[in-house]
């Protein structure tokens, strides 16, 4: 009888190390002690594949995060490591709007600034989405300096310019057009819209939200109690439907009549 070879056991990854925990707890002196004195490995990954440098890009205290990132880079932390989603430390810094850390990372020559993650998003895509135009400008200048393609698409066909217009970050979009020389005629692969059409669509969406918030502030008269399908509806929960509200001042009365 032939023996069936069993597959090798899966590699167990640490949930996190003491250095990971020190970064998450924002303990700067402990990070310095572990790195400088105990010489712990700065490139160890946690259960999600994140290094301590990546965690320094997401903690709330941005000043401490910058100082921790400086300590880790000085100790030789490798910048192009990826987590479980394929994201690098630069991607995390761009996603969370860490301007000072982005400037620090861009000074390193070994950094690949146009590396995409599992979703096809590069650091420039993340910067265009986060809405910090200074980060977009630093990356756009680096793209222009090294002759990189600023129109790289993600898995859904979006370029950084399309994402900036879709999210309403028009200053970032202007920087991408003027500095990174992004193309305004390209269309995404999801809705097949170009930059101008996304800008128009975003503007119309914001206008509808503004009108809806103004209409929703109109409530029913406090003395009225409405009954609908045997349930008692408090007056403060009665709101005017913006899609069916006329421009006249009798909107509340008409909505009340319909509920009755």
UniProtKB/TrEMBL annotation:
Keywords: ANK repeat, Repeat
Region (Disordered): 240-260
Signal peptide annotation: none
Gene3D superfamilies noted in UniProt: Ankyrin repeat-containing domain
Coiled coil (residue ranges): none
ANK repeat spans: 48-84, 119-141
Alphabetized PANTHER family for the sequence: ANKYRIN REPEAT DOMAIN-CONTAINING PROTEIN 39-RELATED (PTHR24171)
UniProt protein name: Uncharacterized protein
Species, as recorded: Elysia chlorotica
